[in-house]
Amino acid sequence: MTIDNLKLEFEKNFNKPAQHIFFCPGRVNLIGEHIDYNGGMVMPCAITMGTTLLVAKNDDNIFRFRAVDFPETTDVARQSSYSKTGYEWFNYPVGVIHEFTQAGVELSGLDFLFSGNLPIGSGLSSSASIEVLTAHALNELFNGGMSKVELALLGKRVENEFMGLNSGIMDQFAVAMGKDSNAVLLNCDTLDYEYLPFEIGDYVLAIVNTNKPRKLVESKYNERFNECRAALKQLQQALSVDHLCEVSIEDFNKHRSLINDATVENRALHVISEDQRVKDARQALVSGNIKRFGELMYASHASLQSLYEVSGIELDTIVDFCKTFDDCIGARMTGAGFGGCAIALVKKESFDDFGVQLAKYYNEKVGYQPGIFSSVIAEGVRTIV
């Protein structure tokens, strides 16, 4: 929906014009999966797709939430604290308002209209996009004085404490701090980061949506989080570390017998090896070795499939096809898994053929069509009007 159409939609909902317009992208993670909550390195980037927010102040001390993409609405009176009610989309911005209120920022009534083109449950961080978008808007409107890093951390608190999902900082950081044509290399423990030009020559970054939605709060995501904590606790009997990603492959192999459960051992092995793959991927990018980067993508998916077990027939079907397509040099699931999206590096000149052949292959294996599009790496959260 265009900005002009959104303005008309806002007036239709609230009988007045919007005063401010903000945008926050979604993200893909190029490599480094399920290690953000284990103190590791990740390499996400913001994309052009995302969420737009139109806002106007009201004199009623009420926060009114409407969305172009969802039928659910709610009106919430201004108060000293808030709590989650169900799993509707508006819980995310309500959680952000709760955080601002707890931080002592004086808010007044607002009318909100959200609109997004990120497929919900696709693993492109629609929830982080809404969180950081709302936080940026409140920060601008009420002089919150927070940096973009602080807005990302606030969004993470909403995800962890308000929504109940034990996620790391990657999603919120990527959509807040994204930079045009650059990947973000982020240390999830220290929040040190580096921008890496994502120069892939004759290739394009394809995003393939399985069209199998997932709900992370209701999934096995928190189970994986707890398995990693169990592995860490057992390794700490011999190693002085605070996070799994501080453990080297050599030290893990030396002390893996301390882990008394084969499944938990596999989870730890994925985390530790994936962190090393991110470091290797950085080197591949810096040296211009895109084929090596693609090999690391395939290795990452294999680990997520067999050791971490967060893939599934839909994502595996996409990656299996990519291995047979000569002009694809790398592919992997992106995001938490359990459905969602995969990404692939495909030669630009072959992208259309890639899409046709993949759709046919996927439909034969899975029984319905995937969504296939090329993506552009973009800027993070920003004010439009």
TrEMBL record:
Domain GHMP kinase C-terminal: 282-360
Pathway in which the depicted protein is active: Carbohydrate metabolism; galactose metabolism
Record: residues binding ATP: G121, S122, G123, L124, S125, S126, S127
Residues bound to Mg(2+): S127, E159
Signal sequence extent: none
Binding site for substrate: E33, H34, I35, D36, Y221
EC annotation from Swiss-Prot or TrEMBL: 2.7.1.6
Transmembrane segments: none
Sites annotated Transition state stabilizer: R27
Catalytic function, reaction form: alpha-D-galactose + ATP = alpha-D-galactose 1-phosphate + ADP + H(+)
UniProt keyword Disulfide bond present: no
Keyword Cytoplasm: yes
MF terms in GO: galactokinase activity
Similarity comment: family membership: Belongs to the GHMP kinase family. GalK subfamily.
NCBIfam families: gal_kin, PRK05322.1
Name assigned to this protein: Galactokinase
Organism of derivation: Niabella yanshanensis
Gene label: galK
